[in-house]
Amino acid sequence: MISALKALDRLREGNRRFVSDVRGQGSSTGQTRRNELVAGQQPFAIILGCSDSRVPAEIVFDEGLGELFVIRVAGNIVAPSQIGSVEFAACLYDTPLVVVMGHSMCGAVVTTLEELERPTGNRSANLQSIVNRIRPSVEVLLETDLHADREVLLRQAIRANVRASVAQLRYGSKVLEDLIEQGRLLVVGAEYSLETGVVDFFYGLPEKA
Ligand SMILES: [Zn+2]
To answer: Which is it for the CA torsion 72, 77, 79, 83, positive or negative?
Structure first.
């Protein structure tokens, strides 16, 4: 298996291809590749991203079948099943890198902001459980001067929510904590821009990355 930094480079290169509209050079989805993968997989990165239809991980990183282990949930939140999914891939396939990927204009973060500003009390318990996991990152920002500028507030809230998910993966599981300590797993945060297509790896990178 490649190193976490190599995995990061590969994601960056794939995203560059996506942004330049030259997708498909590094990815394979054909019958030959399907045949190869029947016996097993070795995904080189785990992506925890938002369910938003505009942010499909395999496409924005220009990867084919068998390369990315992807977990998608509205607001890229971390609940026990997301931690379990990361543990599964990290332990079973030795995948060295986890990327929590938020994105601009995230509807789940917008909904959380609205809920905090004007509580409606009529959301389903299921949707509320997502809002509740995003809420702590957003709440602290609302208490600052940021609340005056909606656009800046949303941008900061999206990044704060990514950082919170990274922290929950790093410290919410003994299994993952041990892998990180042994240098076998790196967890970083990123934001995808709907406007440009660029993924900005903004959090948790080692200095040499
Ligand atoms: Zn979203």
So the answer is: positive
